[in-house]
What we know:
Elements: E1 28-29, E2 54-56, E3 65-71, E4 81-86, E5 90-105, E6 110-125, H1 129-139, E7 143-145, E8 151-154, E9 156-160, H2 163-166, H3 168-175, E10 179-181, H4 184-198, E11 203-207, E12 210-213, H5 219-222, E13 225-230, E14 234-241, E15 244-251, H6 255-266, H7 271-278, E16 288-289, H8 290-293, E17 309-311, H9 314-317, H10 328-353, E18 358-362, H11 370-383, E19 389-393, H12 399-408, H13 424-428, E20 431-434, E21 441-442, E22 445-446, H14 454-486, E23 519-522, E24 526-527, H15 549-574, H16 579-599, H17 609-622, H18 630-652, H19 656-670, H20 678-686, H21 689-700, E25 707-708, H22 710-717, H23 723-727, E26 739-743, H24 749-764, E27 768-773, H25 784-797, E28 805-809, E29 822-823, H26 824-829, E30 835-839, H27 841-846, E31 856-862, H28 866-873, E32 880-885
Parallel strand pairs: 4-9, 9-10, 13-18, 18-19, 25-32, 26-27, 26-30, 27-28, 30-31
Antiparallel strand pairs: 1-28, 2-3, 3-6, 4-5, 5-6, 7-8, 11-12, 11-19, 13-14, 14-15, 16-17, 20-23, 21-22, 24-29, 31-32
Helix pairs in contact: 4-12, 6-10, 7-10, 10-11, 14-16, 15-16, 15-17, 16-17, 18-24, 19-21, 19-24
Amino acid sequence: MESDGMVPPMKGTSAASCPPGSSPFSGVQLQDSAADAPGSPSKRSAALDLTDAVISLQTDPKRRDAPSIVLPHQNAEFISHIAIDIGGSLIKLVYFSPEDTQAEGWENGKTRNQAGGKIHFVKFETQRIDDCIDFIEAKGLHRTHNGKGEPDGRVRIVATGGGAFKYADKFEERLGVLLEKEDEMDCLVSGSNFLLKAIRHEAFMYENSQTIFAPSNTDQDLYPYLLVNIGSGVSMLKVDGDGQYERVSGSSLGGGTFWGLCRLLTKCRSFDEMLELSSRGDNSKVDMLVGDIYGDRDYSAIGLSASTIASSFGKVVAENKDLEDYDPADIAVALTRMVSYNISHLAYLNAKAYGIQRVFFGGFYIRGHPYTMETISYAIRFWSKGSMSAKFLRHEGFLGAVGAFLKVHPMTPPNQASTGSREPRKVRANFVERFSMGAPYSGGEIHGPAFSDVAEKVDWVERFVRLGTQATEAARSERDRAQAGMGLSRDSSGSDFLAPESPSPSSSPMPRMNLHLGVLHYTPSREPFPLLADAVHYTPDTLDIWGDRAEMDYWLGVLLDQVGTVVEKAAACDGQPDGRRRAAAFGRALEAHLVKMRSEPGAYGQLGLSDLLEMREDCLREFRFTDVYRLDKARENAAALEVLPDLLTELDGMAPAPRLTALIEGCLAANIFDWGAKACVDLYHNGTILEIYREARTKLSRRPWRVDTFDALAANWFGASSSDTLGESSAVPRSPFRRVIMFVDNAGADIVLGMIPFARELLRMGAEVVMCANSQPAINDITAPELRALLNQVAAVCPVIKARLYVCGNGQGSPCLDLRRVPEALADATVGTDLVVVEGMGRAIHTNYRSKFKCASLKLAMIKNQHLAERLFGGNVYDCVCLYEPPANT
Length: 890
């Protein structure tokens, strides 16, 4: 629940008059704040409660575990099953374990502690099925538990894959449970559809060592697609929608083929070892190439280059050598290409036959292995003559197991249509990916179980994060030197299908990609902001740092430079005995994230600048720093409140036209207070907030501002008022707006001397105002609970504030604003809204500067970063933006 009280619908609006799918919004009216009631997560016995669900990174040293999904509000008794996908090569297990998790209910000013749990993902080799059963038995996964943690019955084991039939008796004999079989293909498609819709950056392309994410925003962007699942064998399914699919082809030449032949020929036993070995080989030592037949020349008459593979392993026939005379790495890479190219060719032919452009590859054959993905991508691109691209899935191996798990407990929010029948962008509004240390992290891998508490995490960070970072850099340098020494090149590696204009996949050694670094938070009461003019293509970030490496490096550098300041602030505000240690650990952890992102940007998905800024706040919360600027905000609020009465008196004595100018100047001048900007932090150290505010007001009296459409705002503002009224001192014109939504920024002078007087003027003119503040703290941004308390203080000296003014949480814990996912209460508040005000550099410049709305909009901000001012506006630090725009033509 995103707000505390019930607010009546806008004047002239009733529940019956709301648009379909809308309702009068639930906000918080100031005078009703005494009746605030804490929100509570929704509970349904028929479905998982995924409120605030996260993916946690937990694997054992043998790399058997995949990431876990944490369900902090799920009662353990609601989960009565585990899911298992038993293939010919690997077993994939999905199970639930209860866990006590404390969640901060910042938006309601409360803290709740509820039983929750995690959905874990574990894999085993099928030939070691007894290890899997031992694991289930040791963990007690086959027994349900009561509230005291005592076993009280058997769980349901939902199974899919051919092994569900083959090994049913073994499970019954060992565990006393019956496997409930689910159709393998149905589970595969269900899991794939869910993950593609729920996770924005689930699908990606991998070409020329570059990760390119490929989100789908509508069903038309997603369906139809060809799902190529490469397990022991290969299945190809044409997917047309939720529950609409057909198996159109397959092959016995799959991951089991590679594994079996590679084991016989190289003596490697581990699948990952085989894949790693293949990345170091040269297939031209065993494959017969076109150049071997035509004297190192191309067969240009039919378009074949000299490096095209004419026959896999064909060169072995003509050489008088035994197996031990060949390098196992050369054999492994030749096997990889033989299997990958044949699967890719078959996939292309099926996609072509059914008129499908989207081809997704999944299954444990891929394993996030760059060389395998590069090979498949190259083959699809070659055969399609560049018209198709291979796409891969971050949760590639668990599609079937996830689908089986969903058969019993579909992940559907209360009172909503099934996930499968909803558009991807609407499903994703319920999910957001976060990043935490999660489990001991070093050198790009996760080792050991999750930390039991923050103290254990701090201990580990102190000991290992720096060493791990150094080890990663050393390994990377050593690998680069090795590649240079080998003189590897694309042509000399025996690359296949080589056309003059098309490079082949590199055979340089590449480490396994770490794609599962995210934490997936699930909140069912989220939806896209209804007033976005183009919600389908909306992206919050103004700058594309993903597509501009120099821009990403700059902002990563800014965040790295600020780590020390934030560490000091965190240590000073905490007051706990271990505060300094936790603050130092936070700093090291954040630095580790930022350094890794600089070297491996794709490991975190396609992050924007708003994601980087939010990562810092998430990292603070992870180390139990919930609001490091709490004391600063309280002090600045108190100082600003002292001068507010005089400011209001001054404003009330002005005529309407100069009063509007003064109000906008006040909003811009007060926005200078930002602990997230270095330029402003320096000002804090050299003067009081009132001195800074007065100086900024003086400078802002000179127009035009850097971006200045104030005149358009004024024309609309006074359009309904007579010229006689406008000339009267202290006259209040009639509001052209019925309801105004304001996204506010900082505490202190920003909110007290800037946005509150602006909101007050709208209230005096007869408008309703909804002030939207952060649901969780972020630097010195004001939160919804703080805003409610502050407005109660303001109301004591200004009764106007007691009018139609409401407060609503924006669902964010960041200095930016992502309108892809806002609370239901805020979405309901948009009914009848005809002006959206977005204030602050993070919300109106870093994000949403180019966003268009169905109603009029006003963006107000002071630019507090020289680089940003130059990049966007050709301006300077402290330049201001006043951008009023009419409703977009939708």
